[in-house]
Structure of ChbG/HpnK family deacetylase:
Amino acid sequence: MKSIIVTADDLGLDPSINRGILEAYKNGLVTCSALLMNAPSTDEGIAIAKDNPGLEVGIHLSIVEGFSLRNIHSTITSKTAYFENGICLRRDWHDFLKCYLKGNINFKELEEEFELQIGKFKSHFNTIPFLNSTQHLHLLPGIWKIVLKLCKRHEINYVRLPKMTFPDRLWLNKRMFYLLPFSILGSYCRFSLRNTQIQTTDFMVGMQFSGSVTVDRLKFILSNLRTGTSEIMLHPGYHSDYLVKQLPTSYNNFLWEDELKAATSLDTKFYIESNKINLLKFSDVNTTEV
């Protein structure tokens, strides 16, 4: 039996992204969406989630690319107010990782930031069914320790963890060596989930073509699914000049509209139905091996 959970990341980031995610849910394959609590269009994202209870919404923990809810300059913030005039987290993963590797990130500040984001989410929703993060930075040692503690504290049952499997055609592309560290870190994180109530899906796919999942690439992903439950990460939306300008490192080459087409394609819907692939939410999955 093969099952998929199709998650749209970045709900709340921008009106153009919110609109695409809503369309991908109503007319496509998206069953879940990861909501940012510190983005320019978070309030609209919250409203979309409340107006569409069939869309399962979890938290997209913001480590970079958003306002700092602590609202004070610190080791986790940028000197540049790239979103309006607020105090912002570090602008991209390059900047964050450089500071992280130098030991210049204060983990206490980061934990306080995470607590504020989680608290804001819980002020609007009863539960947090799943968690992932911007640029998958929650996998980094030290940060993962904080995330694991917070998942236990706030009863977050699912967390996104990549897993590279061999032989697997999905990983054989030009991004393989870039993604290898994520897979290694993901395997370590999976091991640390043993003897906890926190789960992850058997497989996580979509990173191989992040920001450029076309109809053909999604069909390729579906045709190479393994037995078990796989989370497919997508970024459906409409092009945003604002995001490209403000966050060029992250979004300069993103093809949101291609991913929206993939999520709403009749071809992909037909492939799923004809191959009897189950389309699930996180809350539909009872047990998952880590």
Observations:
- The chain has one domain: 2-284.
- The mean pLDDT is 93.
- The radius of gyration is 18 Å.
- Strands lie at 2-11, 32-35, 56-61, 130-133, 158-159, 203-205, 228-234, 278-280.
